[in-house]
């Protein structure tokens, strides 16, 4: 979908990014890098249909028609805040002709604010809100190598969130926000073995998948 935005606000976010300064090795830093502003120049210039028509006139597309490429800016931002946020961390990297497991710990919080990574006109966000908060409720962890390993999970047992259900089923935007994580007991699940664990144990895991629910 191509849309025309005011150049002054096209790259604006719901919350200020300039003072964010995320810690390297954190999920905030990953999101910051993924949504950073990129300049498209030289061999990465953007094919501009408007520029082409302005230069050559409104001709029909033919093989002989030339195209105009122009410098541009590109930024990936979230346009709709989902009720459930799933983050998939890349846990492998290319090493020559082989893939290697990345075992580095990535810090992630119990409450995540998505606002610095959302467009200023983000849907499902009430007007005036500058926070889009999510509470962690599930983590998938992988132990082992690229050739073999074992998946385990951390899950939080908590009460049902009726407001979140309304958002999922009816698309109703939240009017008020909670700032604290949803209360509940964490459990570590490995095949048929289930054990109660602390939140600090969960936050120290080497996450492969993170599951957050919207705080309403």
From TrEMBL:
> What would be one Gene Ontology cellular-component term for the protein?
nucleus
Q: Which Pfam families match?
A: UCH
Q: Which UniProt keywords apply?
A: Hydrolase
| Source domain of life | Eukaryota
Q: What PROSITE patterns is this protein classified in?
A: USP_2 (PS00973), USP_3 (PS50235)
Q: Does the keyword Hydrolase apply?
A: yes
Name the Gene Ontology biological process terms.
Answer: protein deubiquitination
Task: Tell me one GO molecular function of this protein.
Answer: cysteine-type deubiquitinase activity
Q: Where is the USP domain?
A: 1-215
What CDD domains has UniProt attached to this entry? Answer: Peptidase_C19K
Which Gene3D superfamilies did the record assign? Answer: Cysteine proteinases
Record-annotated membrane-spanning stretches: none
> InterPro entries per the record?
Papain-like_cys_pep_sf, Peptidase_C19, Peptidase_C19_UCH, USP, USP_CS
Q: What is this protein called?
A: UBP16 hydrolase
Provenance organism: Pandion haliaetus (Osprey)
